[in-house]
Amino acid sequence: MDELKVFSGNAHPSLAQSICDYLQIPLGKVDAFEFSNENIFVRILENVRERDVFIVQPICSPVNRSLVELLIMLDAFRRASAGRITAVVPYYGYGRTDKKDQPRVPITARLIADLIATAGANRLLTIDLHAPQIQGFFTIPVDELATLSILHQYFQGKNLDNVTVVATDIGISKRARDFATKLNAPLAIMEKRRVGNADATEILNIIGDVQGRCALTVDDEIDTAGSLIDTVNTLLEHGATEVYACCTHPVFSGPAIQQIASSPVKEVVVTDTIPVTGNKKLDKITVLPIASLLGEAIQRIHTGSSVGAMFE
Fold first, then answer.
1. Is 158 left (phi over 0), alpha (psi -120 to 50) or beta?
2. Which domain, by its residues, includes 95?
């Protein structure tokens, strides 16, 4: 496994190319496309026997196509006798279905973990899982990276005054507390509950004080942005002078872009775990690159160095 190879599916090829630029290696050649009957076909266009292979493919829109394409690519590399196969999944789709919180519902995040391992992955490299227990769903090693330092450096450079970091819900409070500690800022928490299975939430309370302060919300992903807009409006109603938002994964589905564009939020800062292209580009949306983070982790995995040391 002395030769490192990075390949990409169709979900985010520009991220894979940026990773290869960081590693100073060419992007691997693979042909992956969909027939007219919607069946996906993959052919590897170079020798990968006994190579150390990394496949970059976030499980993002179109989610089910991206997932199946990843599984087929894993199977192709396994059958091509790759030495080790690492699935690089910056965004782990279906991660929000991580527990059985109603009768007769699946734990889809566990199912996806089983599918990835069965298809041929020897390990997983991912970023900011929705819930830490997802790591335990896998029977293969999992390296979970964090974007905390990238987001922190950006906001530290903005020199915002009187900042209060706001966890958008109790589940993200630990990550938000770590963020607040790095910024030397107080923490507030939004107490809310999800309404049924719809993409809707109800805000119950704000734990903490935002009166007369600049609020900075922290979340792992922004989907339809409904929860974000409710949070921003509630913070302003409780006396916040202005609101900034940050998250790792810019899902931006449905009406998200229109809601963000018309909302009073000052800026939404995200990373490029998911491509932000076309009409998703707004002046108030800032996208921070993560290629160096993933590239460094890939290099360390390849050479047998510590990935955890990146965050010490």
1. alpha
2. 4-147+291-311
- Structural domains in the chain (count): 2
Give DSSP secondary structure letters for 58-118: ---SSHHHHHHHHHHHHHHHHHTTBSEEEEEESS-TTTT--S--STT---HHHHHHHHHHH
Tell whether pTM > 0.90: yes
Residues 154 and 266 in one domain: yes
Could you say which DSSP state residue 161 is in?
Answer: S
Asked if 154 and 134 sit in the same domain, the reply is no
Is the pLDDT at 201 greater than 70, yes or no? no
pLDDT tens, 98-126?
Answer: 999 889 999 999 999 999 999 999 999 99
Amino acid type, 311? F
Do residues 74 and 120 touch, judged by C-beta distance below 8 A?
A: yes
> Does 132 share its domain with 181?
no
User: Tens digits of per-residue pLDDT, 266-283?
Assistant: 999 999 999 999 999 999
Which are the catalytic amino acids? 192
- Shared-domain flag, residues 211 and 239: yes
The CATH number of residue 212's host domain is 3.40.50.2020
284, 299: one domain: no
C-alpha distance across the termini of the chain, in Å: 28
Coil, strand or helix: which one is 245? strand
β 123-127/142-145 pair status = parallel
